[in-house]
Amino acid sequence: MNTILEKLQNIYDSFYNAIVPEQRYLAYINGLKITLIISLFAVLLGVVIGVIVAVIKVCGAHTKVLIVRLLGKLCDLYITVIRGTPLMVQLLIIYNLIFTSRDTNPILVGTVCFGINSGAYVAEIVRAGINAVDSGQMEAGRSLGFNWLQTMWYIILPQAIKNILPALGNEFIVLVKETSVASVIAVNDLTKNAQYIGSRTWDLIPPLLIAAAIYLVIVVVLGRLLNILERRLAKGDRH
Amino acid sequence: MIVTKQLKKAFGNHEVLKGIDQHIKQGEKVVVIGPSGSGKSTFLRCLNLLEEPTGGEIWFEGVNITDQHNDINKMRQKMGMVFQQFNLFPHLSVLENITLAPIKLKKNTREAANERAMELLRRIGLEEKATAFPNQLSGGQKQRIAIVRALAMDPDVMLFDEPTSALDPEMVGEVLELMRELANEGMTMVVVTHEMGFAREVANRVLFIDDGIVKEENEPSDFFSHPKDPRLQEFLSKVL
Ligand SMILES: Nc1ncnc2c1ncn2[C@@H]1O[C@H](COP(=O)(O)OP(=O)(O)OP(=O)(O)O)[C@@H](O)[C@H]1O
Ligand SMILES: [Mg+2]
To answer: For ligand 1, is residue B36 a contact (CB within 6 Å)?
Structure first.
């Protein structure tokens, strides 16, 4: 009986140590902030890259203009490389190769890297969204005198984006988890800060469990919000 | 206004249009009829280059639009098109559907475009639908909005591809009525339709397309009462 109480007391102590002294809870909050910032900006960058790449690919598939077809092939290559190599390796390459100067902001590096990575996945989502828009929309736009790009921008993309909004939300949720590997390039995100606290208390498991719990809560809550949004959107277009 | 010279169109090996020579004059109403799959839509869609012809030339208002050097987008602003499936923009309100092209293509300021759109909506009795979205409209309303959307660009010619074929029977009348009004105002029109009554009443000229060519053309009364081509006789006996 005593030993069980003792065990519980030990567990309580180690979690207490992982949270309270030296305002360690602030480290989790700050880490979470950075995790969310990197995820948010990465997904925004990913959407920008993804939309551009998707539009080039769709255009390349329809046009006879050689340069656009070549650009389309280039986009294929980008998608293949990004999806065919581990995220961690991409992160290390971009960190060490492209941002060589030591005083580069690791948060920026993380954002750019995850954005570039995310762009490849978002591109495929956007492309599917574009292809799902009825072909009559392109014809209607062209018949009014819009050129291909204008029709894409004013008519096709708004409809495509609306259809894929849930998938983009999902990409954000995926990024919240995936950005934890950013800790290898000295980004003080949630994972990194948890590790740091563990190194201070000589007890790594409690802070990691706490970090895991925070990730879980965020992911579950975001998932719920996304479901609500999805239902709203579905209600909006009863065709 | 529109001249086609030996207009040809093939999809792969499938030759759909085998050389069509037509001259559509200002103010003329031309109705195109023919069996399913005969190339009526293809002919109409070639006129504004939604389909790229594989042979021949198309001249619009004295410009060879099949010549790559001419800006087809500019030309299309002068050629309104109405589709069987309406193709309204579902993400935009009725008003925005009508004003998008005039505003973005810098034909009108936003104010002027809105004013013109409301004037057009009033004309078809749908001004209270200005803020509605397409999915809140009936088929007949959708198609009339689609016609008005094309009119907002002040086109010189209107192309209609079976504008009433996707409608419930009770809504066909309101769309034909609007087209009749347009015709009376002197709009140049090319209409693919199965509505023989409309053709008889409104057309200056009826074309029968079959086997990729214009098999017969005539003014409507002779066209319908004294068809010469046996294929046309057979076709009319089925649809009349
Ligand atoms: N994009 C395309 N690719 C391949 N074949 C096509 C294409 N569009 C049309 N066709 C073919 O061309 C032929 C003519 O089609 P079109 O749509 O012009 O006929 P239509 O006279 O309008 O018929 P309907 O009365 O059914 O509308 C058909 O055999 C059709 O299968
Ligand atoms: Mg057709």
So the answer is: yes
DSSP state of B25: P
* Residues ≥6 apart with Cβ < 8 Å to A185: A91, A92, A95, A106, A109, A110
User: At CA A27, angle to CA A6 and CA A169, rounded to 5?
Assistant: 110
* Residues of chain B below pLDDT 50: none
Give the lowest-confidence range in A9-23, A221-235, B80-94, B225-239.
A9-23
The Cα B81–Cα A152 span in angstroms is 19
ipTM over 0.85: yes
For chain A, the average pLDDT equals: 88
Sequence-ordered strand ranges (E) for B61-183: 63-64, 79-82, 157-161
Q: Are B14 and B211 in contact (CB under 8 A)?
A: no
> Is the CB of B83 less than 8 angstroms away from the CB of A162?
no
Collect all residues of chain A within an 8 Å Cβ-Cβ radius of residue B156.
Answer: none
10 Å CB burial of residue A97 (0-12, 13-18, 19+) is exposed
